[in-house]
Amino acid sequence: MFRLHANDPLSKEAMELLKSSGFFEITAEHFDKEELIKNMDDIEFLVVRSATKVTSDVLNAGKKLKVVGRAGTGLDNIDTKTAKELGIKVYNTPGANAISVAELALGLLLSLVRHIPRGTQGLKEGKWEKKVLKGHEIFGKTLGIIGFGAIGREVAKRAAGFGMKIIAYDPFVEETDLPVHLTKELNNLLKEADVITLHLPLTEDTKHIIGESEFANMKDGVIIINAARGGIVDEQALYNALISGKVSGAALDVFEVEPPIDELRRKLLGLDNVIATPHIGASTHEGQTRVGILMARKLIEVAKEMSSL
Length: 309
Fold this sequence. Notes:
- By secondary structure, the protein is α/β, with parallel strands linked by helices.
- It has 2 domains: 2-94 and 285-307, NAD(P)-binding Rossmann-like Domain (Rossmann fold, 3-Layer(aba) Sandwich); 98-276, NAD(P)-binding Rossmann-like Domain (Rossmann fold, 3-Layer(aba) Sandwich), CATH 3.40.50.
- Helices cover 38% and strands 17% of the residues.
- It has helices at residues 12-21, 33-38, 56-61, 80-86, 98-113, 116-124, 150-161, 186-192, 212-216, 235-244, 263-269, 285-307, and strands at 2-6, 24-28, 45-48, 67-70, 89-92, 142-146, 165-169, 181-183, 195-198, 222-226, 247-252, 274-276.
- A 7-stranded parallel beta sheet has the order 8-7-6-9-10-11-12, sandwiched between helices. Strands 2-1-3-4-5 form a 5-stranded parallel beta sheet, with helices on both faces.
- β4, α4 (80-86) and β5 form a beta-alpha-beta unit.
- The chain is elongated and about 65 Å long.
- GO terms for molecular function: NAD binding; oxidoreductase activity, acting on the CH-OH group of donors, NAD or NADP as acceptor.
- This is 3-phosphoglycerate dehydrogenase.
- Keywords: NAD, Oxidoreductase.
- InterPro entries: D-isomer_2_OHA_DH_cat_dom (IPR006139), D-isomer_DH_CS (IPR029753), D-isomer_DH_CS1 (IPR029752), D-isomer_DH_NAD-bd (IPR006140), NAD(P)-bd_dom_sf (IPR036291).
């Protein structure tokens, strides 16, 4: 049997699948970094979500560590370079939570353009702000999707149902059967889109892919949605664009600093034209069940292959 530790919770169904496989001796408890390092000696399979940072010192402490499983899409919380150097395999579950994130992105957009959060809060405070909460339709507007992987495609399907025109930028996608105009030039999207939503991983190439110069190339009054990763958008540049009116509104599920309690993020969240959620894009019961089960199946497959060697 392999020693498996789930440092972040997986769904009940996923844990039952791992247990019933007979391949694992399992513990499930969240340790902070220092405590995790102390407990790495005998762990062979480490399972995490986004909360655990699998840094080089965590990996080096795992003398028996063979596999890191990331239940989710992004790998920015795992030092994949060190893992490769140490011969540790890293697996994730791309696409399993795509519907959850796509639905949140569209929900954020609708909430922003129809002033749903302010309207709700106003009513709770005894206000009736009907005259000042005139919003906008998204029908007929051009949606720019930056990153056209599994999540970007799910966003496009739903946006098409709202009657939006859709343009997508992704240098790795050559064609699609969806009603989407693909472009290999980011500036083409920036100049045409009324709404821009980001759905790409955080890497050295994508860090601050949207900054001062990109905002300058956008339409006046553009809307920004980020339910991907903090750090993709330069948040100081976003703040400046919101203050100037270049960006009419932003809806954010992720931040470069999480929780967003530093001065810049507090100023950003203090703006009337910003709405936000605390990194909940993948946090649905259905999405986490899919993610967990897919992760469990991958780990069982890997354990089966290792057992047969």
